[in-house]
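Weekly modeling sync, notes
Attendees: S.R. (lead), two postdocs, one rotation student

Agenda item 3: backlog of single-chain predictions. S.R. asked that every request posted to the team notebook include the full sequence so nobody has to chase files. The rotation student volunteered to paste the first one in as an example of the format we agreed on. Action items at the bottom.

Example entry:
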Amino acid sequence: MESSLSAPIIFFASIFTNNILLANFLGMCSFLAISRELPSAVGLGLAVTFVMTCTTALNYLVYHYLLVPFHLVHFRFIAFIIVIAAFVQLVEMVIDRYSPRLYVVLGVFLPLITVNCAILGVCLFMVIRKYNFVQSVAYGFGGGLGWMLAIAALAGIREKLKKAPIPKALEGPGISLIVAGLMALSFMAFSGMIQMG
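Predicted structure, as returned to the notebook:
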């Protein structure tokens, strides 16, 4: 039985109340590593949003029109990862061609989008929650925007923190993890607005 939630509700819930990063803590590695500067964080966020939206749609088609009819559902992890890896290669080539500076800034984290567990998590949640195609695309797009919102907010805060007097013991990853935890708590304030289940 398909989910009864409308696509706009799923879209806004995946940005705020069920943010894949701040509610499920998926995609934390690149979230902490690339959030030192706002431009690179936004660039990676755009790339993740694009990949997450497209691969959610593609993986929906693969799952429902290839894996389910041939009783190959148990291969969904492998199939989803292959689709994500192929799409990341495409994004990497496009960024290298049209934005060499961003390509250099993102460095090794660009191909590592392939193993960003937030993207695989969205594809798996789409199956578990029994979304239809439109709901899945809304969830993938909203999930990507939510991830980008979180990494851009952390990058902005970290840029401000460079000028702040922080105790020596909390510099670097320590203060970043504290800020990420506070951001997750602040996003919980949205939880009464929309419930996605």
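Discussion: group reviewed the output briefly. The chain has a mean pLDDT of 87.
Action items: rotation student to repeat for the remaining queue; S.R. to check formatting next week.
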